[in-house]
Amino acid sequence: MLDGTDYLVYDGDCPFCNRYVQMVRLRERLPDLELVSAREPHSVVDFLRSEGFDLNEGIVLIESGSIHFGDRAMHRIANLTNNKSVFNALNRWVFRSERRSRTLYPFLKSGRRMLLRIMGRKPIEQND
């Protein structure tokens, strides 16, 4: 399935996730990056599910054939972005450390779950 295309798979129903994807400006480094909502039908979503990834548990960056999931994806994104914006500089400072990424990512997941519950949104389906 990994055809050389770069993908960022995230929860398209999550306002936090949507805003993060917009603000991080990852396409400056990966111009052909395809943004994929894990809630929409897509071959890369099917592939990730078949490989055992629970898309409720984390964002996924597929870059140059490598899969980065959850805190590792946040860490990789931080290292790919530049410091041209205040948001990117802050994101880079926070998540460029693998240790900080591992420590902080569970809080991001909890915040996402809580927001989706408040909004009445269901978790991302894992089976077709």
Can you describe this structure?
Strands 2-1-3-4 form a 4-stranded mixed beta sheet. The longest helix has 22 residues, at 98-119. It is built from 5 helices and 4 strands. It is globular, with a radius of gyration of 14 Å. The model has no long low-confidence stretch (mean pLDDT 92). A hairpin with a 2-residue loop joins β3 (60-63) and β4. α3 (71-80) packs across α4 and α3 (71-80) packs across α5. 27% of the residues are buried. It has helices spanning 15-24, 43-50, 71-80, 86-95, 98-119, and strands at 7-10, 34-37, 60-63, 66-69. Helices cover 47% and strands 12% of the residues. With 128 residues, it is of the alpha+beta class. The two termini are 18 Å apart.
Unreliable runs, pLDDT <50, ≥5 residues? none
Strand content: 5-15%
- Topology as a string of helices (H) and strands (E): EHEHEEHHH
Largest pleated sheet: 4 strands, mixed
Total beta strand runs: 4
Task: Assign an overall shape.
Answer: globular
* Span of the ends, CA to CA: 18 Å
Helical content (DSSP H or I, runs of 4+): 40-55%
Structural class: alpha+beta
Count the DSSP helices.
5
Tell me the Rg in angstroms: 14 Å
Overall pLDDT: 92
In what order do the strands lie side by side in the largest sheet? 2-1-3-4
